[in-house]
Amino acid sequence: MSKGILHYEVGEQIDLHLLIKSSTKGIASNGKPFLTLILQDQSGEIEAKLWDANQGDESSYSAQTIVKIMGDIHHYRGRNQLKIRTIRTAQDHENVSVSDFLETAPIQKDVMMEKITQYIFEMKNPNIQRITRHLVKKHQTALLEYPAATKNHHEFVSGLAYHVVSMLDLAKVISRLYPSLDTDLLYSGVILHDLGKVYELSGPVATSYTIEGNLLGHISIMVNEIAKAAEELSIEGEEVTMLQHIVLSHHGKAEWGSPKPPMIKEAEILHYIDNLDAKMNMLDRALERVKPGEFTERIFPLDNRTFYKPSFHK
Amino acid sequence: MSKGILHYEVGEQIDLHLLIKSSTKGIASNGKPFLTLILQDQSGEIEAKLWDANQGDESSYSAQTIVKIMGDIHHYRGRNQLKIRTIRTAQDHENVSVSDFLETAPIQKDVMMEKITQYIFEMKNPNIQRITRHLVKKHQTALLEYPAATKNHHEFVSGLAYHVVSMLDLAKVISRLYPSLDTDLLYSGVILHDLGKVYELSGPVATSYTIEGNLLGHISIMVNEIAKAAEELSIEGEEVTMLQHIVLSHHGKAEWGSPKPPMIKEAEILHYIDNLDAKMNMLDRALERVKPGEFTERIFPLDNRTFYKPSFHK
Amino acid sequence: MSKGILHYEVGEQIDLHLLIKSSTKGIASNGKPFLTLILQDQSGEIEAKLWDANQGDESSYSAQTIVKIMGDIHHYRGRNQLKIRTIRTAQDHENVSVSDFLETAPIQKDVMMEKITQYIFEMKNPNIQRITRHLVKKHQTALLEYPAATKNHHEFVSGLAYHVVSMLDLAKVISRLYPSLDTDLLYSGVILHDLGKVYELSGPVATSYTIEGNLLGHISIMVNEIAKAAEELSIEGEEVTMLQHIVLSHHGKAEWGSPKPPMIKEAEILHYIDNLDAKMNMLDRALERVKPGEFTERIFPLDNRTFYKPSFHK
Amino acid sequence: MSKGILHYEVGEQIDLHLLIKSSTKGIASNGKPFLTLILQDQSGEIEAKLWDANQGDESSYSAQTIVKIMGDIHHYRGRNQLKIRTIRTAQDHENVSVSDFLETAPIQKDVMMEKITQYIFEMKNPNIQRITRHLVKKHQTALLEYPAATKNHHEFVSGLAYHVVSMLDLAKVISRLYPSLDTDLLYSGVILHDLGKVYELSGPVATSYTIEGNLLGHISIMVNEIAKAAEELSIEGEEVTMLQHIVLSHHGKAEWGSPKPPMIKEAEILHYIDNLDAKMNMLDRALERVKPGEFTERIFPLDNRTFYKPSFHK
Amino acid sequence: MSKGILHYEVGEQIDLHLLIKSSTKGIASNGKPFLTLILQDQSGEIEAKLWDANQGDESSYSAQTIVKIMGDIHHYRGRNQLKIRTIRTAQDHENVSVSDFLETAPIQKDVMMEKITQYIFEMKNPNIQRITRHLVKKHQTALLEYPAATKNHHEFVSGLAYHVVSMLDLAKVISRLYPSLDTDLLYSGVILHDLGKVYELSGPVATSYTIEGNLLGHISIMVNEIAKAAEELSIEGEEVTMLQHIVLSHHGKAEWGSPKPPMIKEAEILHYIDNLDAKMNMLDRALERVKPGEFTERIFPLDNRTFYKPSFHK
Amino acid sequence: MSKGILHYEVGEQIDLHLLIKSSTKGIASNGKPFLTLILQDQSGEIEAKLWDANQGDESSYSAQTIVKIMGDIHHYRGRNQLKIRTIRTAQDHENVSVSDFLETAPIQKDVMMEKITQYIFEMKNPNIQRITRHLVKKHQTALLEYPAATKNHHEFVSGLAYHVVSMLDLAKVISRLYPSLDTDLLYSGVILHDLGKVYELSGPVATSYTIEGNLLGHISIMVNEIAKAAEELSIEGEEVTMLQHIVLSHHGKAEWGSPKPPMIKEAEILHYIDNLDAKMNMLDRALERVKPGEFTERIFPLDNRTFYKPSFHK
């Protein structure tokens, strides 16, 4: 396989298929239109300008189109940019498809599904187990395909399931060290906490917020879903309220979107586990892009901090 | 009728039936137990000490008991206190019942119900109308009996319905001045916004929070109820999401308990109307207790401010 | 009458008189100067670029000049832009004047003045009535011409009076529902609360802040004016302090510019009424520009929120 | 002279005249009333309990009464308390008056007045000089007698003038180091900044807030006074606005009570000088009461901090 | 062994040795002194009143004295209280010592030391290993005896070492899941992060803050100690700065006492691990004291929240 | 001497040597590269564009190069810009050196050193004096050359020493007015408070943050340095902790970077003196650039305020 667009250095030439993530028309000061293309493959994305674009270019080179590009990498305002020499749309016989260009979780879907199933299997409380199994089954396809967010962390295909699986593993090792934790509540909370995103977000590609997502949010949507599941399964009892509470409170504070803060121990701990996994994901991705002895770009959801990679790290 | 306990002046004698709101045992420095009684009638409440209380007193004079008391009003630490001379429990033939001693909304329940029904009748959008009617019908008894809160505003029997009716009248006159408002959404929002309190609170007397109330809150509970109503009535369409959003956002900000801020006009306006009616209720009750030229006690939910009654007011 | 500039769609041609709101010189990357013109009529404003501008263009096409323009509407970065074909300054015989191009309150000045006079007439307290009448008379011309702000809400000719009249009507209907309110204080407070803007702002057109406005603010200026009025009318008594307090506290909190928070009931309620009318004005103007099923632009003074227009609204 | 009440140690006997600062009735658990007296002399104050107080005691030993007390100092909850053996009201022939017991500024009134006059004399701008002189003359008696606050700093007789004089001296030495400062604005600002307190506060003894003080505050009152002075002296020009602005902004931030923050250099510097003098006053008074190697009590207006007196200080 | 004082129910009699944690003198309203004793054993503490205390009692029953008490448990203001029948100081032949009454970590000191040594042994970077070993050796005795805080979490004998050991175990399992973490930095950071407490706090019993602790804090003290260790070991290189940074930043934010926020990945993760272990400790201790279906007391360092123990937990 | 670049007016021609402060490559919309040069001399800086730059230009005209430029001053977006006609690098025989173009403190280094030495000489406490002298000697060269910051205030060559000397003079006059201040602590605190900047910053020219500066900060670094100095001088005693505390707390609050707030009087006062001198420096520099009757640009570290220069100032 050829190397990803993110790994080319300034001065190198490329000759690659790339996916147009977005295409924006501008008008240059000479009055002529141009296109700003964000091009991506699985390694990341790069900006390119197409000068003197005509009407045809605008419609040919729109978002979600795969193109074949020859050009050079140069440096502009502290970032790599692609100088296009030639560009054309991909042809059928080239056998490329959109999914080849999307970043995807590093674990296969079926492996992740097996893991989740195993954790559900380990639950001892039948009410918790049945509600969890019911909801996973109901939303299985989306759970395995959706990203966990539109940006910031796990913003890639299958990001949601990947985030869940990482958190389940964390929950397990932490529960062994603090055996007073109720693993049924914790595992179920992990699996359900972000599942409302399958309603909140539009899908795995070119992800945006739905109207329901904007006006209600994944937390409230999921609290509803749990109520509905319990009703359909004729389950009554405090377990339902506890699961709803864990989902409701998992952002930790009212100002972060949880109308109630965690008020049971497993809800509090789930909030830490969620944070830990999300922050590790952000930090690893940011630090991968710098060399030892350098600082990363500012990371907005980490209070806009920049992180240093010690020079004795590799 | 005899005047209420709140209207006696220092030095006056009383000979009244009163309801024990709470009874707390203390131990005096001479080692003997005493009871601190909070006594109430419809006008308000007063503290009294019962010194040298024996085991029997403790069980006789517990919360929710009606007693006959003779005593004197005196002044202690800036507040009136009742010095008990004689106390006994009320007897059957005296024909007094707990509800005689509870503060109650100034409008009759059936009048309030009629008003609410009229507003529902005026709605034009059938989806909004049917959901609203369904939920009012389902919770009618509680809606007409519950308070709107445990303290701060409308914290009396039927306070919830009274708050709703006042807000409906406000919504109507405001909508006439700003005809772009959708009165269907606004009226329905007013009627439903606090209806989750019938789950959140324990009931009209000695009101406390339920476990569901503590861990989920009336907002999330009501969003669920709307979803359930829509499903039972087989209603689909954006109206459901809009009503859920209005309820969800009616506290105005995340830090005040709304996971989403108002994002449709009627939600924003409902937030103001709710505020206006609640604050008027607090202000009127606080200002009633002072004379012109005086300041009220500090009002906690109004940023702990004290308010002045101009000396040219009566 | 021809339709306003705001109502043209992309692709349409225009041939209109427009007022230049602002004109800024830039230098293109080819080294040649160009002008960025903001053009307006009563419907709103649009941006246009005049490329290759010469010295003469710069002086001809300055702010407050009326021009005749032929051109096309196209789309640039999510907003309409005007592509100029021909431009010339308006000529005397064309009978156009600056005021034809300014947004203006939807009610005539004399109608608004009549309304305000009527509310003053209804006041019963002679001290309050005389101070209010005196100050309205003193600043009548400006009150009827000034905007209520430089941006955000009621930022148009006669916006100040229009805001006052809307608030008076709100004050009236609210007072009927809460009869404990002192309408004298409330009406006078509404009329005077923003009147200091006639000193704070520079005038009805191309409005900016005066030095006094910047360093003292309309609140402090108006508190002075009330003191002065009372002295000139030889009025003494608590009414003067109450009116000063209402003006002083009408922003609600210290951090919003009120050195004292509301400490009388009418001051608190005026703060809500002011808010309600200002927010309705912002919301209506933002929602007018979108279609059902769309979100508005972010509205900065509404916590930068975006608002949704339900798809069942027209 | 006998030593002050603050300087007696636990175990010592006292036989002193003291002023009753406040007297509060309580009821002991044996049902008998007692009085809690706060007694003061120029050195400070001490608490005493008068057990088994009768009706006569309550009226004899009220606030602002001078009493002769014999008793013992003992320790109670980390503070000295006075155990009363005998108490009686002072008699005419004993020649004691209330002012003998009040804490007072350490400089004589006429010396302070002379200093202020000298600073006014040094002003070069006639407008600033005339306004300042006019206002000092108008309020001279109160300026020399009032405290600067009811608590926190300079809360003693003549505290206002003392604070002004200290700040003037600070302003002078700072201006010599930064000669770009306009000493006319700075000196006048210092003299006028808190002068509104003569309206805001009730007087030099048992100081409380007036209604005007509560509802308008000393800042807004003084801005008015400057306007009035300028009018009476027929002074026009930017100096008036500048002086008003300095007074208006001297609390530094909106949330600290200044509707506008400092926007001229002298206003900014005055804010620092005010702070520096007030904080020095608080710190010196708190540190006087502890020994080297100890921490002071928490000082509320200094963010509730406690301060350490280094053990190598005396 | 007899059961701990915390496990007696109301109505039970006790006959136990207990340690006086604090003894405060009060004066009853009958004028006689009494002592408020806080008595403790390893299970927790209880309050008792000793009425009519004489001079001798006050000196006999002071803090850190072991007493033999007979009495009854009763209920007062929602908490258990001990009613003393007889009290005397413990006698030599009874073979009780202060340490028998202090809460202590549930793991033996030597086991904890062995664990810490093992983690140091696993470090691969010699600079990090040598600094860590040097500092642990230098402060070994205190590290194994001090509490981790004066209150809130791990506030018991050997609490500091217990907190370190728990965190090391957490660090290990988390590092296995996120192999990009540098375990040398993480283990060393865990071991050193709170070691400055051996200077900040006064010791394992009746713990208070030292002057250095108050004025510099354990974070700054430890940053110094690392510098000193590096100098004594002649170690230069970025590892020193990294370890100092981890200690410096471990409170996470400036307002929580870290002058720099975490800026390397291991510092960020250590902050979470610290939080997780501290919060688990608080939660477990609070939840132990309530029954299923009940709420705990409010926990101040957890934003003053109360936590629910689900009724299906045992 | 020719006048500085900052003092040329629009339309004037220049023919000057200037230092390139920074040089950034851009690509124009015609696809050709250009350079944005920031040029400086001691009076300040100006922007210039070099169009159609070739490879050679990019390397010739890099930061820290001195160039000879002919060109015209014109106006662009509210700021002066330089239109380059001819540009070349300076030649050896022209005898210009980088330091000729850098802004520098207005007092000579040796004069500042003498002043600092004099203040050290006046100290009476030998521990404080020896530590201070030791550290000044150790860092003398850097202290006299470094700026006090990278931006905001005293951001010029020798700015650090100049800030120290101004503060020492302030400390002296303030201590005379408040004789309870310990001048030893205050003078030493002033001299040492920012000395850690010689590690935090990279040097006097093109100043940036070092890694140690970023991860530890000048405060923590200096606290270490004091400990080290005390050890090398074998000084023990509370003075060391006090000096460390003054440095540690000089930012005043945790959120401003001080892990402990000031807890001794001299630390509190030093914080004010630091503020006063820094703010005077910012204000003087901003006000110098505007004419009477104008407002300055917004000053970010002064809460983004703009300041007015009264029209009666010159």
Provide structural commentary:
The structure is a homohexamer of 314-residue chains. Chain A is α+β, with helices and mostly antiparallel strands. Chain A is built from eleven helices and five strands. A five-stranded mixed β-barrel of chain A has the order 1-2-3-5-4. In chain A, helix 2 runs parallel beside helix 5 and helix 6 packs across helix 10. The mean pLDDT of chain A is 92.
How much helix is in the residues of chain A? 40-55%
Strand content of chain A: 15-25%
Instruction: List the helices and strands of chain A in order.
Output: EEEHEEHHHHHHHHHH
**Structural class computed from helices and strand pairing of chain A:** alpha+beta
Protein name (chains A, B, C, D, E, F): 3'-5' exoribonuclease YhaM
Keywords (chains A, B, C, D, E, F): Exonuclease, Hydrolase, Nuclease
InterPro entries (chains A, B, C, D, E, F): 3'-5'_exoribonuclease_YhaM (IPR020873), HD/PDEase_dom (IPR003607), HD_domain (IPR006674), NA-bd_OB-fold (IPR012340), YhaM_exoribonuc/phosphodiest (IPR050798)
Family (chains A, B, C, D, E, F): Belongs to the YhaM family.
How is the secondary structure organized here?
The structure is a homohexamer of 314-residue chains.
Chain A: E1 13-27, E2 33-41, E3 44-50, H1 55-60, E4 66-76, E5 79-89, H2 109-122, H3 126-138, H4 140-145, H5 159-177, H6 183-192, H7 197-200, H8 211-215, H9 217-232, H10 238-248, H11 265-288
Parallel strand pairs in A: 3-5
Antiparallel strand pairs in A: 1-2, 1-4, 2-3, 4-5
Helix pairs in contact in A: 2-5, 2-6, 3-6, 5-6, 5-11, 6-10, 6-11, 9-10
